[in-house]
Amino acid sequence: MNVKKIPLPVMAAVLLWIKTYVVYKASFQIKIESLMQELILFINPLSFLLFAFGLAFYFTGEKSRNRYVLFTSLLLGIVLYANVVFYRFFTDFITLPVLFQTSNFSDLGDSALTEIHWYDGAYFIDILLLIIFFKQKRRTSDFVPVKKMHRRAYFLVAAALLFFNIGLAETERPQLLTRTFDREMLVKNLGTYHYHIYDIFLQSKSSAQRAMADGSELVDIDNYVSANYVKPDPDFFGMAKDKNVILVTLESLQSFVIQNDVYGEEITPFLNDLIGDSYYFDQFYHQTGQGKTSDSEFLVENSLYPLSRGSVFFTHAGNELDSLAQNLSEQGYYTSAMHANNKSFWNRDVMYQSIGYDRFYSAADYHITPDNSVGWGMKDIHFFEQSVDLMKEMPKPFYTKMITLTNHHPFRLDEEDQYISEYDSKSGTLNRYFQTVRYMDEAVKIFFQKLKDEGLYDDSIIILYGDHYGISENHNEAMAQYLGEDVTPYVSTQLQRVPLIVHIPGVTDKGNGEVLSKVSGQIDLKPTILHLLGVDTKNSIQFGEDLFSEEHNDFVVLRDGRFILKDYVYADHTCYAKETRESTDPAFCDPFKEKARKELEYSDKIIYGDLLRFYESVEYINK
Ligand code: GP9
Ligand code: MN
Q1: Ligand 2 (single-atom ion) residues, CB below 5 Å
Q2: Which of 260, 297, 570, 598 shows the greatest Cβ crowding within 10 Å of its Cβ?
Q3: What sequence ranges are listed for the domain Sulfatase N-terminal (predicted)?
Q4: What is the pLDDT, as a whole number, of residue 487?
Q5: Predicted structure pTM score
């Protein structure tokens, strides 16, 4: 084949394609776990590049076409290189909100400079090759504009490639775009250029919605929230004043495993004991959507609902918030989050700045080895042990939110960590789930012991809750076998219960443990915790209610619109009576439909319009 015959745009696309792949391998640490993932990584830059350079075929003059090709190569080369430099410092890919977050800007400028090296010129070698190539070409061949038919065929190939790429990515990572988990995942599956386009799209969408909003919308919301405020119980208000707060997010833990067994073996022996020494809420629901763990964090920190699609951590990471962490900072607490995973997962590194933690202890702060890892990363026992060592060094009082990891789909464990036997059903996921839950239970037990050994226990309150379901509806058949009943919409809704355990040393462990069957959800945690610490929330925009308040209402809305009352469950457009577990007269649920809809709508409005930035002025209007 005569290289000189290759059209310049195609040549440029191929050069940049190869360069991008080389840069992926050399400058980013993208985890590749299979040959298929490697293949996706390899092909993912190509379709975008074919499109970008293909536009050159619309130029009729040789000079303008060459200029366009060169300019595009340079521009994309700069984008790629900027990511390399950014990655060297932040081990992350650039996002628009990061670039435009003014507080980051000066830091970014400084750190960027220190990460640029003289040998980085090598990143632009393809441009040099391109110039040589087109100089040669100009000398030897005449310029011919491209025929329409060829142009069409070219774009058809590019489009086919794009769909092939998306298809492969979808099989590797279902719901990649709607869940937007992790930037590494997006780059790995769709390529760095598509990732930037997607990021621009997300950003412009939320900027538009934000630009249209003004504080007046907040007045109604504020009125609604104030009317629904419930007074704290004086016996509980300030009960844990100035204690350290340790909030433990237990990955994928659902309530149905509590006080339950597999072939006679207890699944959560430690938690079962702990419940006796704690306030245990057995009618507490997760309210997460596609943002899973990140949604649970959002709910707990802000007492707002997450969004119905995507994760707020990604879509609205720059919003003004009035978080639990900020409230506790104001009370002199040192605030942090602890999670032994890549810090960019769920965009935490960016969102945590808006939440306002003083510190995020992520994978880089833990000693992670192949021996102490399984599945998604560091095993919980090691995570808890190392975390307590980190806690010892924290200024007191502190508030820290810990997130466990081992009890995560696909629920794999090393043999030595399997304390109970597998369940036997058609679903491997459910079969293994009980074992990983049992492992997590052991980890929590070791954690409590270590807190005691290190003298942290007495001055702390420990609150544990499940973040979301672990077993999805795909496993209904196996679930029905375990539960001994069909998973109807009613049962499925009841399965959305996650444990909430509030353990207050010196109080609940002195025989004051209690099972509280209040119908409630993650949204209630922020006012509950603040009130326990003696912090007033009367002026906060929050949809939750203090769980210890006498006035707490038995009502919880799930993110998909289902809701649960004291005696009824509204699911699948049907009103179910808890007593009979059968559908009943819709009139029992009807009066609450409007309230459920309104809460979700108001909360969405706050997030889309970034309305809390107007809060001070609304307070003023209302006074
Ligand atoms: C990852 C962990 C799991 O860091 O929080 O996220 P999930 O898939 O459960 O949302
Ligand atoms: Mn989770």
Answers
A1: 251, 292-293, 467
A2: 297
A3: 243-535
A4: 96
A5: 0.83
